[in-house]
UniProtKB/TrEMBL annotation:
Biological source species: Nonomuraea cypriaca
Protein name: CAP domain-containing protein
Domain of life: Bacteria
């Protein structure tokens, strides 16, 4: 049986003072926004909050474990035009232990990211939204790219996603304590925002926001870019993040293996981490 396990993002939006911008993050935040201290935007926002005396918070969340049947999912807008959307990631053992073979194994991951980007931008184009881009050089830091890659690798190494179980080290979801939060590393306590900031994201921004989607699949039909984006587009919170008009950039990284121990030894298995950003 092919199964896909996935825990949803939880969205939180903030209007913050300068002091609050320096404070630690709420542990359930997945779509997170912060002002850069001492910037002009921060000073204006600080004055606005001081006048109103209000901190605005909104929280919604959901969790789902098994992907809807493929027949029930509407076709992706870019299914007929995007390349490599059905690529089935193969293990390192499937390639010769040579320089060329090791390179061919790594090239698989390089093909996944543009395939996801193409599918996501096709959905955004259908909603009359501007396309997302990769701003590795324009913004001066590869922070979101590196943060998503590292989180995917750590998730596969620690395998904490899925159900909360006795002896399992994970942070339960706020809205469903039976499920582990895939966005909080149980060893380091890092969140999407803390990981991005640790790598330099936001240093050149007056204000910025980020969001993170995650996905894990096992079995040939469940590890492809088409499967991941189909799942996200059929989950309201993930779809809302993908179609959020404020985001400018997106990075999708994958790691061989499952972050959810329910996959057992099934191969192929692939873990996706997708990060969105806006810097202004």
């Amino acid at each position: 049986m092919k199964r896909i396990a996935m825990n949803c993002t939880i969205l939180t939006r903030f209007a913050v003072t300068e002091a609050e911008a320096l404070s630690s993050l709420l542990p359930f935040s997945r779509n997170q926004q912060r002002l850069v201290p001492k910037s002009a935007v921060s000073r204006r926002r600080q004055a606005a909050v001081a006048v109103t005396g209000a901190l605005l918070l909104g929280l919604t969340g959901a969790v789902s474990l098994v992907q809807p049947a493929a027949a029930a999912a509407p076709p992706l807008k870019g299914a007929g035009t995007c390349k490599n959307i059905d690529i089935v990631y193969r293990p390192k053992s499937a390639f010769p232990d040579t320089k060329q073979g090791r390179g061919a194994f790594l090239i698989q991951a390089i093909k996944v990211e543009p395939a996801v980007m193409c599918l996501v931008n096709a959905e955004r184009a259908a909603a009359n939204l501007r396309p997302l881009q990769r701003f590795l050089r324009l913004k001066g830091t590869p922070a979101l790219s590196s943060a998503s890659a590292r989180h995917a690798a750590e998730a596969v190494k620690l395998r904490w996603w899925g159900d909360v179980e006795p002896g399992k080290n994970c942070r339960p979801m706020k809205n469903d304590p039976t499920k582990c939060d895939p966005h909080i590393n149980p060893q380091t306590g890092s969140t999407p925002l803390s990981r991005a900031q640790a790598l330099g994201y936001g240093r050149r921004c007056a204000s910025f926001s980020i969001a993170e989607n995650a996905y894990v699949g096992w079995g040939s039909a469940s590890v492809t870019p088409r499967a991941a984006v189909t799942w996200w587009m059929n989950s309201k919170l993930h779809r809302d993040t993908i179609l959020n008009p404020t985001f400018e950039e997106m990075y999708t990284k994958v790691a061989w293996g499952s972050a959810d121990p329910d996959a057992g030894s099934t191969i192929p298995a692939l873990t996706y981490v997708q990060m969105f950003g806006r810097c202004s």
